[in-house]
Each structure stands twice: as C-alpha cells, then as structure tokens.
Amino acid sequence: MPNLLNETPGLIAFVRTVESGSFSAAAKILRTSPSAVSRSVGRLETLVRARLFLRSTRALVLTFEGQSLFDKVAPLLRQLDTSDEVASREDTLAGRIRFSMPSDLARYFLTPIFRDFASAFPAIKLEVGLADRQVDLIREDYDVAFRVGGGGQGELRVRKLANVNMVIVASPAYLEKHGKPRSVDEASALPFARYIVRGHPSPMVFAGGKQFSPQGRVDCDTGQALRAAALHGLGAALLMKCVVQDELNDGRLIDISTELDLPPQPLNVVHAFGSMIPLRVRRFCDFIADQTKSIPGL
Fold it and tell me: Can you give the residue ranges of the HTH lysR-type domain (predicted)?
C-alpha cells in the first residue's frame, strides 16, 4: 500500500462517506460540498490504485479493497478524533451544538442546559430547535436530535438514554361518558385526539404486537395540543406520563390505560457522525442522559 500520510483529507472524506452512507451525508458532516468529498475520494482511489466504491445514481457500495482500507484506517482516525480528551481540558471545548428535542421535554431539559451545561462550556454555541416531528438531521443541519420512540434510519446512529412511561389519558367528563377500556379492542372503539405524522395518525401500539389506528375528530402534531384536547374532553390522548403528571395528580386527567399493556417508549439521541462523534457533542449527550435520572416518569 502506498504512503498515505499526505492524504489525510482524502482518508477523512473516505471514512466519513463509509460511516454516513453517501457523499452528501459526509459533506454535511465535514461542512463541505458532495463534489469536494467525491473528488477527495477519487484522489485517494488514484493513489491506492483501486476502486473503493461502486457508484450508481441510487447506491454507493463499498468494494473489497474499500472495506480493507476502511478496516485499517478508521480505528486510527477514531483515536485521533478522541485525542482531545487527553490533550484538552473539558472547559476548552468549543464549537456549535445544534440540537432538536420534543417541545414537551424542553421544560425538563432547557433549564439545566442553559444553567449548567452552558456555564460549564462557555465556548460552545447552542442552537435549539423544539419540534415534535422527526427532523432531517442532515438536510436541516442538526448535530443531534432527541426522539421519543423514534430511532434512526440509514446513516444515523442511535443511543438510548432512558425509557419513557406512556399513558392514555382522558378528562373526567370523557370517562363518565365512555368508560375505561378493559381491552385493546375496547380502546380501539373510543374517540381519540390523534397524533399526526406526515398526514397520518400514529398507531397505538401495545405489548404483544397489538395495535390500531385511532379514530377521532381532533388531529394534532404536538403533545401540548394533545394534552389540551384531552383536558377539554375532545378525545383520549396517548402522552408521556411525565408531561401530564400534574394533571393526573390533581384529577384534571385520568389514566384510562391501567388495564391495557402499554409498553414504555425509548428516549433516544440520534446523530449522523458515525463512530466519530465530536467530543463536545458526546459530552452534551452524556449531560442529557444524566438529567433523565431526575425526571419523574423516565
């Protein structure tokens, strides 16, 4: 194999492309253009005299030679990527962290983020996006996204932070009119305030694989809207228990899923950095994971 010491940019572009799955995804991570990444990989292929990828308009497939190079180079780059843990103090971490999280969880996380994390790392710039939808990390330029029940696809990496207890809640007036369901079949006949994803109601999923598509006349795209609809008796709603704990305590909402086997949902953090997540982002994810321990219902 030729000497690759002078081809560090090409090696980085190659490894990022393998781990993210495409030139465009690697370009987002490297803050450059897909054509620049493609050229860097092309120069590397010329240097090693081998095709590293088989390319088409829809796919990018690693060749045997590409896999062999990746296996040799990727561990070395990972070591360099994490070397700042030894060479730098924690309070010298700098750069941007652009993150997305559900608006329902912001009430628990934003105060410690702004009060504790931001003060511990004054050189880190924070960009906050509150959205219940699943943002496109690469197209929308997010470093990480926190999702309840949603994982990652393709080039995205997922880390589970905690389990989130779920409940189906309704107002006392609703309960008096419709009663409490004793089975999934009975629950499927009830009117719901529905959570809408890409124009379609999100299914209700129970232990053992049972599920149904809820019916109802109120469609919402945020947990806060679902909560308000349930409070006003417009339908039952599936929500994180921590979000409605106050209403459950004072009786404004009632848990009607006590006889249903409703599994918890994972709280995940999702990113597109592959195995080479920047130290500042890793510290931020660790911080959020630690905060989940103090949140009731998680």
Answer: 11-63
